[in-house]
Amino acid sequence: MLQKLCSFVGINADSMKKLFTLFICTWVIITNLFAQKKSYNICAVAFYNFENLFDTVDAPYKFDEEFLPQGAYAYTGEVYHQKLKNLAQVISEIGTDLTPDGPVILGTAEIENGTVLQDLIAQPAIAQRGYQYVWFDGPDSRGIDVALLYNPNYFKVLFAQAHTVDLNGSELKGGATRDILYVNGILMGDTAHFIVGHWPSRRGGEAASAPLRAIAAHVCKNIIDSLFAVNEQSKIILMGDLNDDPVSPSVTKVIGAESHLKKLSPKSMYNPWMSLYKRGRGTLAYQDRWNLFDQILLSTPWITDTKGWRFYKNEVFRRQYLVSQFGRYKGYPLRSFDGNIWQNGYSDHFPTVVYLVKEKD
Description:
Elements: H1 2-9, H2 13-35, E1 40-53, H3 77-93, E2 103-111, H4 114-121, E3 132-135, E4 145-150, E5 155-163, E6 180-187, E7 190-198, H5 206-230, E8 236-241, H6 249-254, E9 257-258, E10 269-270, H7 274-278, E11 284-286, E12 289-291, E13 294-299, H8 301-304, E14 310-316, E15 337-338, E16 341-342, E17 352-359
Parallel strand pairs: 1-2, 7-8, 9-10
Antiparallel strand pairs: 1-17, 2-4, 3-4, 5-6, 6-7, 8-13, 10-13, 11-12, 14-17, 15-16
């Protein structure tokens, strides 16, 4: 058969065998190239409530007396530096299962001032990353603020602003509360917008205090809407201790967060935490009930973009050493204090993380 084919095309059998072998080899190479798995760069964005990270210096204009050496918590320099060390250990490990540099962006809550942030980023466990931060001194009656830590090797800040949450419009007397922090910058080639909040607490009851959180949510929503008005492809991340769960009206109605990917509109905010919450996972616990207050929401372009950074997955960063092993808070996050007694813990919240991926060239 081969001889007849060779005679028909006018070449000898040896040449035909060589051509056939070359074809097979080429086909195998091309097939293997197309069969290779795509490879991606991975970036971690996290949020962590530091639980009362105060320094030991009295600030006369703030209510920090409890967190002084002579205060109710006996908050000495030794306690302060141990708390810094503990928090730095957690930060050093967040996200490192997938990316060795840990969080490129870390939103924070319950920090007193820039001094505590400066002392934190100088801790040996994370000092080599060279974290910098964005922080504004806000009006909160307890003297705590939100902030954004970032790795300048991967993120360049272009603009930052604090947005006031005015509670005077509510009939409730919520007092002065934390500002909403907005930071815009370049995240390894992509323009990104970060909104960090610590919405009013549930003091007085969940339902009674809900209007206060709705006010804070509206501030965030106004920022989101203004960004989409300029560019419908804005990549926005809203993160924070919202003091509300993924099912709460402040998140589902005011922000309009959607937990189903197929239902996202071009200007939606995606909430990847709903399924975890419905499975009983949380970031803090109260009276044997888990809440998932520490959320990270992403605008639709983080989902639909196929060329730049896009959402991959999320997790509650829960490790065994972060869980209390005994006492009345057994099974809860290992907090800094039990009552007024120092526990050598970390925080009463677990951190949360979202992972972004970008296909390698």
